[in-house]
Amino acid sequence: MNRSPVPPAITPAEMSWFDGMSESSQAYIELNQLPARFSEVPEAGHFVVAENCFGSGLNFLATWQAWQAFGPSHSATLHFVSAVPFPLSREDLEKVLSRWPELNNVSAELIANYPALIRGTHRLVLAGGSVRLTLIFGDTHKAYDTPSFMVDAWFLDDCSHAASGEVDPNKTIKHVCKHSKPGTTLAAVKANKAFQFALEEAGFHKISCDKPDVQPGSFSGVFQPEDQPSLTQGKSVESGFSVAVIGAGIAGCLLANNLAQRGYSVTLVDSANDAGSAASGNLQGAMYVKLGVEFNHQTQLALSALTFSQRYYRVHGGPFWHPTGLLQLAWNDNEQDRQRRFIERNQYPQDVLQQVSREKAEVLTGATLETGGLWFPGNGWLEPSNLCKALTVHPRIQKLFGCSIRQMAASGDEWLLFTPNTDSPNITANRVVICAGHLSPQLIPGSGTFRFKAIRGQVTHLPEPLATRHRAVICGARYLNPAHGLEGQQQAVIGATFDLHSHEPYPTTESHRENIRALSAMVPQMMPPHMASEDLPEQLGGRVGFRCTTHDYQPVAGPFYDEDGIVAAGLYLFTGLGSKGLTYAPLLAEFVADQVTGQPTALPESLAKKLATGRMHRPNVASS
């Protein structure tokens, strides 16, 4: 069997590896004393369990059930971190888990959210956010080198069975120690004497166990290394602090909702009178990314955001998410060549994307087309403004709309936020996240300058008489969404211009014409021929939004570092999402919430570096 498919695909496990496997889930739970420890997790707190091989997920599912039974009644989060070199396919996972009907209440949700077979880190948000699974597909040792997390309890197998691949136990123990803190417990089932001795040598002091149902060869221990680390190393961020989120676009609303679900009190501030009023205020927005021909870190981040967003909107998008599928049209010679090279150099699962002919594309979209392209079956379009409003309806979110922030200042462990009408702080919070799009630089304290750009984007509304009856999103030089609205009042949205120089806040005829010309060049049959050259119909409407991007066109998400590389404690940035905000925002909101709360992060360090805030400082150029 070929063990090295073209990235980003990964070889699935063979079902035979799991035929005789006996996963001692209850032993792991009992040896780590999880029922009692789960009950002690505080409001807005979290507990982290990790294992070194996911297998068929039985250990995770049993832990999830234990969390349901013994976990706190208030808001708290169970994190489970696991890796697998050769994961089961969704179909095989469903077959394996069908043997344990007692797990049906949790296994069905795992199967429904199970990621496509793509190497890398996958974050699954389950049980309404009270359970978060970080599942890493690929080399186990590399997997545990990259994510940032500290563990409360380990489930450790000696990795002798075939499903784990060829793994060096000593390397496994090294990674376990890296992610452990004083007091971390560990349970190893089926551990030979040499493996147990190595664990004790590494600092895990053996704990005697008098439970008769625990099989011989089991080991339980607590991490007490001789060279005790400082008290702050591995310590979780205190729970229950307050957070202010500035900006109620899609990024800010997703982040505020994420933090509130974890049990944190959030103040959401915006100068507009309602959520989703600026760049996130369009009637429709396409959810897509353009994956690079080369599978580099930029492409990996885009793919991670795409697959996470598909899972997120399917569960949380409600009536505002329309999973129609999306066609990236090979609309001219350059794009046809790019897509040819993309297919030659990459291997993607069919449930992520597939190359389709013109005939197939016409069947999928219901449109008359000139060419085929790349079909993304899990994509679609959103009603972003309505979604933003829905996300802010939560008892832990206090909304302060019609409120501008003039200045912010740190005071002890708090941040003070001032409005233009007073010299006393109107808002105090322990953490502040700036999500204000292209206005973010105006809010960042200090005197530095930043490499952000404002992009004027105008969308065009096609009224029902002009809108075609296609049923999926079509994108290329522009995107065209299916018509939507009440019968007789439907309209479709063409988006959007990309203007780095204009600051005009209202729709212009020239921008409408630019949108229609681009659409006509992409899909000639979509518009009457005269529309691209003659006067536009009076009933043609539209909207302008200013998106924020960066010098390298990659988002910014994480703790704020000043120009000297010093972190401003409690201050974070989350902006620069450009024209792909609907796709990037769910994953990056998850990632920023992880950082704010001190929980395991949804992204590996290699991708987190691409989002780092320090790169946004404009270098000082000495005058000659």
From TrEMBL:
Reactions listed under catalytic activity: 5-aminomethyl-2-thiouridine(34) in tRNA + S-adenosyl-L-methionine = 5-methylaminomethyl-2-thiouridine(34) in tRNA + S-adenosyl-L-homocysteine + H(+)
GO BP: methylation
Keyword list, A-Z: Cytoplasm, FAD, Flavoprotein, Methyltransferase, Multifunctional enzyme, Oxidoreductase, S-adenosyl-L-methionine, Transferase, tRNA processing
MF (Gene Ontology): tRNA (5-methylaminomethyl-2-thiouridylate)(34)-methyltransferase activity
Gene: mnmC
Cofactor(s) named in the record: FAD
Coiled coil: none
Domain MnmC-like methyltransferase: 101-205
Major subcellular site: cytoplasm
Annotated compartments: Cytoplasm
Location of the FAD dependent oxidoreductase domain: 243-594
Name by which UniProt lists this protein: tRNA 5-methylaminomethyl-2-thiouridine biosynthesis bifunctional protein MnmC
EC number: 2.1.1.61, 1.5.-.-
Stretches the record annotates as tRNA (mnm(5)s(2)U34)-methyltransferase: 1-237
Family: In the C-terminal section; belongs to the DAO family. In the N-terminal section; belongs to the methyltransferase superfamily. tRNA (mnm(5)s(2)U34)-methyltransferase family.
Region (FAD-dependent cmnm(5)s(2)U34 oxidoreductase) residue spans: 246-624
Reported function: Catalyzes the last two steps in the biosynthesis of 5-methylaminomethyl-2-thiouridine (mnm(5)s(2)U) at the wobble position (U34) in tRNA. Catalyzes the FAD-dependent demodification of cmnm(5)s(2)U34 to nm(5)s(2)U34, followed by the transfer of a methyl group from S-adenosyl-L-methionine to nm(5)s(2)U34, to form mnm(5)s(2)U34.
Keyword Nucleotide-binding appears in the UniProt entry: no
Taxonomic lineage of the native organism: Bacteria, Pseudomonadati, Pseudomonadota, Gammaproteobacteria, Pseudomonadales
